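Researcher: Good morning. I'm working through a list of sequences from a screen, and I'd like to move beyond sequence-only analysis. For each chain I'm collecting a predicted structure so we can compare shapes side by side. This is the next one on the list. No need for commentary yet; just the structure.
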Amino acid sequence: MKTFSANSTKISAKILVFFVFFSLAIPSVSAASPFTDVPTNHKNYDAINYFYEMNAIDGVEFLPDKEMTLENFIKMALISLKYAPTDTEKKAKSQCSDVTSKDLIPYFNKALSVHIISKNVLSKKCNAEKKLSRVETLKLTFSIYGIPTPLIAETKTTYKDVNENVWFMPYIQKNAEINLLETDNKNYFRPYRKITRADAAELLYRAIQYIDENKKQSESQPAENTTTENSAKNNSVTAENNALLTEISNIPKIDIFLDVWKKLNKDYYFHEKEGISEEKLIYGALSGLTNKVKDPYTEFLEPSTATGTQESLSGKFEGIGTTLLEKNEKIIIISLIKNAPAEKAGVEVKDEIIKIDGESVENMSLEKTIDKIKGPAGSKVTLTLYRESTGKTLEFTITREIIEIPYISAHIVEKNIGLIELSLFGENTEKDFIEAMDSLEKEKIKGLIIDVRNNPGGYLTSVIGILKHFIAKGQPVTAIRYIDGSIYTEYSDGPGEYAKYPIIVIANEGSASAAEILAIGLQENSLATIVGTQTFGKGTVQELSSYEDGSLFKITIAEWLSPKKNSIQEKGVTPDIVVTISQEDRDAGKDPQLEKAIKEVQKKI
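Model: Good morning. Structure tokens for this chain:
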């Protein structure tokens, strides 16, 4: 968290230098609204009209209540800073694989060049269509306008849904000082709620006013005060550095750590033979820190391993199609990608990995295990597995393939019954889910089956976004319990348009995390019946920090609860109708769980 904040401050400084020559003067307000859906008495009218007069908004509809996307936010912000692409910039190739519009390319290229945003190192996607949360827009705004934030939050939060240890606490503190983003309830900030276009416009507008006011105050100061001002800025930076150094000095045994670090780098006899580098040592130290906690979901990933994590979320990678978990000093397969090499070979969820190519995994880290299983398409890996259900040790030789994960697929399984299969909750899964439902509704479906078998989870925001299309406005979607015992409940803001269908969810022991949130969210809101077997039982929330060198840090910060505040951690979600699949069923190509789901939907139509 500290590293993240420090980097954010550096980025803000770069951007402030880049944009310092632009004027931020607020133009006069027009007499009549240019939009058919934004009357002049709308609470955010001045902000919306400002961006209209800056030519940052096209058309006669603004759609104020629609969720703000990254692409629209970036364009509005840069135009407000008087950024106008040159002819050369307009002709430049897009640096983002998912930004193809000639109108947007120069804005995203500029945002990347000044480090406002970043892109996935593998897919090159910038998530242009991502719907932004309130805290994400706040972070972007501070970066874009060069508004400095503290390295470490110095005040306690008054919000019940904001833990003081979260990475965005410094942004919450700064927002409390300058009031850019309002809250609808003094007790809740709702950091993960998607921000509307109107509220995002208001946020940017207030940031511009804040910068403009500071500029006027600076210009009104006598010239001889310039040195004093610069001195004050330098003192501020020094104070931040001193605060950081003080915190480092307070780390227990830091003197021992520094002495060991120095001697390993300088005096270790096999230093050259083993290829020891400062990078290897620091990664080892960071991994050692997280290895001391028992939680399998809290881990530091070196760039090579982190790349694999990003590959799986990008939807394409080389391997055999398994998701692994280290639990009780055992490495377990917790999910299988449908039709990937591992599943086709006969590997099952809950199989324990004993050996890889004859080498025992005992005392082998999860990261190293993953690295040994990964490999180029066409190569082979032999896994020795222990299957607790049969008490047998099995061996599989599996050929690696290029695996493209179909996050979501939809089709008709029976007359008037639609089936949506969700294999992972990626950043754009909510959008893809809506598109899938649109295609099914064109087929005049009367019932719906959602299959989350072997879905290991993914982004919490994605599953919450999907549930809001089923759960009525004002009803609980999920809840989150933080380290201090406080519980934040996420309520649906609608529209709940899919609740009209009879719904069956199919789940199994490979359904985990976000997949379990979806299943129990629909179950406890009396919207769906669950068919299948007990789910995995992963009920904790991880915060992901990515660093400039490509490494990642995952840390468990909370436990998510069901809408009725029930915990599923290490318990799982209990199906309403238990249906198992035997080996004979698999060999015969039968799917009794899907068959039962179809019958249950037919009863309700």
